[in-house]
């Protein structure tokens, strides 16, 4: 059987390495992300948790956790704006490239620094608070490393592109490549020409997505979303009607 003409055109332009990185890797990562979550839900429903460590330490957690989570929420919204919404749409509503770029850089840098700062506090806490360190598995350590590398590379790509020269218009390359994956018409050439920091950031993000379902990060896909505002651990008194009175000796009547 002969390969279709467009497949050999791919190979000529992006090279085999380009196809592996910008066609095969994203689909494998996406498939593992989706199937992995289904598998985890079916076989480890009760392990679908953050494994909160709030009981062990609260002071650092109360600073690091909101800083990280609100930071990453803004980063996520920024990625939806930059990767999912085509440039032609923002042009059509009168947002010039310059205005978009300034907004994205300022907001993205603040959010990126907040996320990385929050993560640094959370990792410092994990390492220095004894019981929290004891509750940290190898899986957690690998997850923290992968998360830190991805966020640091994203921030480095943004800062480097703007510190040296007038910024990089990733909405001409990375963004259409990202959408091409979901249209099932992958265009590896678009990524092959992007600056190295953008490429490394994307590769590390794809690897993070593939590992996601097997880590504590599954808590991101948890309903209800009240998660954002509720306490990390829900405390309940022993008996709602009687309050937290000390337990009596012996048997108690059921329903009393
Ligand atoms: C395939 C997935 C991803 C792609 C294609 C992608 C692409 C990009 C691009 C093009 C930028 C530059 C934005 C700018 O200069 O304004 C960026 C920045 C950034 N990315 Fe990603 N990204 C991905 C996933 C992720 C993930 C999973 C995380 C975090 C866990 C992340 C964290 C960041 C951070 C912190 C920045 C710095 C600027 C900001 O706050 O937006 N990215 N990313």
From TrEMBL:
Q: Name one GO biological process term.
A: anaerobic electron transport chain
Q: Which InterPro entries match?
A: Heme-iron_electron_transfer, NarG-like_domain, NarG-like_sf, Nitrate_red_gam
User: Which GO molecular function, any one, fits this protein according to its record?
Assistant: heme binding
Transmembrane ranges, per UniProt, are 19-39, 60-80, 100-124, 144-170, 190-212
Q: Which segment of the chain is annotated as a signal peptide?
A: none
Give the UniProt keywords, A-Z: Cell membrane, Electron transport, Heme, Iron, Membrane, Metal-binding, Nitrate assimilation, Oxidoreductase, Transmembrane, Transmembrane helix, Transport
Q: Does the keyword Amino-acid biosynthesis apply?
A: no
Among Gene3D superfamilies, the record links this protein to:
Transmembrane di-heme cytochromes, Chain C (1.20.950.20)
Write down the required cofactor(s): heme b; Mo-bis(molybdopterin guanine dinucleotide)
Q: How does it sit in the membrane?
A: Multi-pass membrane protein
Q: Where is the NarG-like domain?
A: 20-238
Q: Which domain of life is it from?
A: Bacteria
Q: Where does heme b bind?
A: 69, 79, 201, 219
A GO CC term attached to the entry? nitrate reductase complex
- Where does the UniProt annotation locate this protein? Cell membrane
**Biological role stated in the UniProt entry:** Does not seem to have nitrate reductase activity.
Listed NCBIfam families: narI
Q: What is this protein called?
A: Nitrate reductase-like protein NarX
Instruction: Write down the species.
Output: Streptomyces wuyuanensis
């Amino acid at each position: 059987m002969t390969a279709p003409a467009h497949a050999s055109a791919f190979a000529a332009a992006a090279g085999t390495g380009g196809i592996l990185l910008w066609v095969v890797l994203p689909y494998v990562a996406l498939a593992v992300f989706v199937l992995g979550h289904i598998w985890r839900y079916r076989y480890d429903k009760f392990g679908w948790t953050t494994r909160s460590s709030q009981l062990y330490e609260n002071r650092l957690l109360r600073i690091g956790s909101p800083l990280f989570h609100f930071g990453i929420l803004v980063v996520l919204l920024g990625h939806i704006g930059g990767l999912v919404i085509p440039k032609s749409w923002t042009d059509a509503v009168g947002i010039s490239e310059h205005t978009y770029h300034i907004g994205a850089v300022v907001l993205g840098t603040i959010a990126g620094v907040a996320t990385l700062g929050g993560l640094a506090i959370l990792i410092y806490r994990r390492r220095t608070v004894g019981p929290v360190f004891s509750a940290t598995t190898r899986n957690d350590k690998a997850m923290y490393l992968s998360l830190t590398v991805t966020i640091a590379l994203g921030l480095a790509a943004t800062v480097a592109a703007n510190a040296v020269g007038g910024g990089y218009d990733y909405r001409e390359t990375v963004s259409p490549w990202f959408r091409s994956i979901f249209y099932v018409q992958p265009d590896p050439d678009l990524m092959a020409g992007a600056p190295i920091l953008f490429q490394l950031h994307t590769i590390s993000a794809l690897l993070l997505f593939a590992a996601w379902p097997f880590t504590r990060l599954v808590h991101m896909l948890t309903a209800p979303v009240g998660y954002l505002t509720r306490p990390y651990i829900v405390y309940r008194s022993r008996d709602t009607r009687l309050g937290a009175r000390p337990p009596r000796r012996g048997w108690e009547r059921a329903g009393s």
